[in-house]
Design brief:
532 residues; alpha/beta; Rossmann fold; 6-stranded antiparallel beta sheet; 6-stranded mixed beta sheet; 21 helices; globular
């Protein structure tokens, strides 16, 4: 049993999302604010009916609605139009498994006959007239009046879900950033531990805990203190005052017991270890059909600790479906590029969807660092080698007064034979990408190589038409002239052929000297076009 697909409308930053998943491991990769956390939160909400550890009804507020959708709604109201009120919809399309038959139906936005769960936050029909009156003058309204809204939690069979026990899929959401205090961290661990206890063990633990409280009163020193307090009856109150431990229903063993690691209370353990313990416990105690959602497993962990944790996740995932959001190329490498979901504001693409099987195989074998850089950047400039990278970086800084990464532009050195493979991912993600390449003395061949990419929106192949200047070094010489080259390189070449021979022999050194030089020099035109 697993989630095949998620459809989200108008939930937080996700205006529209329609994402399919692997049956087991899903590594969700994307830049900050792209909606990765929101995606996991929405899945957990639809499976549990809970947000921030509390029933959704108690956490309902106007800012759950996508701000763009809300703005569009009130803008249309000011234009005397009558748009549909904003509505949140989260749909989980589940695998067609006999164990999920009671949730099966076609009451979903795509009319697919599958098991599934639908959670909607929408206008309460019984409050429609009051809502209409409230929004009649939208000039003073900027947020959704949730007082007129209701929650509809239903299966695709179109029957209400009253509580999460009606859903065979259990979910654990693990996010270190939401554990803001020690008590919350301890309670989280206790909740996971409870899942592994049998009903008899839970009863035994509760009875033992209550017995311990009763024995507290039998201690001679406690009895002596209470006798002294009893003597004050009438001075403070007509009733006798005494000290005891709380044995009410709110003071259960779960609230009073503190998890320990090597006899040290959990809150005093480092956050990285706390995070690792939570993830490992979730894996150990989950049922076979459990859904585990892990928010940035690398939080607070050293490289060695992360290596051990990710290895544990990979080895113990079993038949469960696991979702992990990450910014770490190590996590991507360790769990396999085939598990990666490239996610950006509702659009999800998997590398195994690449049509070219050789390109797909290339990225399956490639260490994921450069792949991740391409995915996370706002725009990418692909260059042929380290010297090209240094020239592009410095030229951008000279032109804009800052390094490209400060604008979210990543300059990645890639073997020219791999340019087209990276462009395949860029096309999947609609990622703006420039290729800065040598013409190698044959412009016709270069154009033929990139024929499928020339003229594509967002993809630019930058090269120079001068076949006499085949690579970066002659291009720099042509653009700047021998005096500038000598000044930048701090050399005194007597002629251009000598200078060019030295530059080609010392490519990395040439790039470094251009990068560090205070001398005014100009980038070749084909490079300058990529510096916009």
């Amino acid at each position: 049993m697993f989630i095949q697909r998620v459809v989200i409308d108008n939930y937080r930053c996700l205006k529209k999302a329609d994402v399919t998943f692997n049956a087991r491991m899903n590594v969700v990769v994307g830049k900050n604010e792209c909606g990765k956390s929101t995606l996991l939160e929405a899945i957990h909400l639809a499976l549990t009916g809970q947000l921030n550890g509390r029933p959704l009804q108690m956490e309902l507020h106007p800012y759950l609605f996508n701000v763009d959708v809300v703005s569009e709604y009130f803008e249309q109201r000011t234009q005397a139009l009558n748009p549909e009120p904003p509505r949140i919809l989260i749909e989980l399309y589940l695998a067609d498994d006999p164990a999920l038959a009671k949730l099966k139906g076609d009451n979903n936005s795509h009319r697919l006959d599958l098991p599934g769960i639908s959670l909607a936050i929408e206008l309460n029909p019984a409050m429609a007239s009051e809502f209409a009156q409230y929004v009649a003058d939208p000039s003073e309204i900027r947020t959704v009046p949730i007082e007129y809204y209701c929650i509809r939690w239903r299966g695709f069979h179109d029957s209400d879900i009253l509580n999460s026990r009606e859903i065979p899929l259990n979910a654990s959401l693990i996010d270190a950033s939401t554990i803001r205090n020690n008590a919350a961290a301890s309670r989280y661990i206790i909740d996971i531990v409870k899942e592994s206890l049998s009903p008899k063990e839970k009863v035994d633990l509760a009875l033992t805990y209550r017995l311990m409280k009763h024995r507290f009163l039998e201690q001679p020193k406690v009895r002596a203190i209470n006798d002294a307090l009893a003597a004050k009856q009438g001075e403070i109150s007509d009733k006798a005052i005494s000290l005891s431990l709380d044995t009410s229903s709110r003071a259960t063993w779960e609230a009073g017991i503190m998890p320990h690691l090597d006899d040290i209370p959990l809150p005093l353990i480092g956050k990285g270890e706390q995070n690792a313990v939570k993830i490992k416990l979730a894996l150990e105690t989950s049922a076979r059909s459990h859904i585990i959602l892990i928010e940035e497993a690398e939080n607070h962990l050293s490289y060695a600790s992360l290596n051990e944790l990710i290895g544990h996740i990979a080895a113990n995932a079993g038949e469960r479906q696991i979702f992990i959001t990450t910014h770490s190329s190590f996590v991507l490498n360790k769990l396999g590029v085939e598990t990666v979901l490239l996610f950006q504001r509702g659009k999800g693409v998997r590398l195994n969807e690449l049509k070219d099987t050789t390109t797909r195989d290339y990225f399956m074998k490639l260490p994921g660092h450069d792949t991740l850089r391409l995915i996370l950047s706002k725009r990418t400039i692909l260059v042929e080698g380290p010297s090209d990278e240094l020239i592009v970086q410095r030229a951008f800084q000279k032109k804009h007064g800052r390094m490209p990464i400060e604008d979210g532009i990543d300059v990645i050195s890639v073997n020219s034979l791999a340019f087209k493979r990276f462009l395949a991912i860029a096309q999947l993600l609609d990622k703006e990408t420039d290729v800065v390449t040598d013409n190698d003395g044959d412009v016709a061949t270069l154009k033929a190589r990139y024929a499928d990419h020339l003229g594509l929106a967002g993809i630019a192949i930058q090269y120079d038409d001068d076949e006499g200047a085949t690579t970066l070094e002659p291009q720099l010489l042509k653009k700047n002239g021998l005096p500038v080259i000598n000044a930048v390189l701090k050399e005194s070449f007597s002629d251009e052929p000598t200078a060019l021979a030295w530059m080609k022999k010392h490519k990395a050194e040439t790039g470094l000297r251009f990068f560090e030089s205070a001398v005014e020099w100009k980038a070749p035109d084909y490079i300058d076009r990529a510096l916009r």
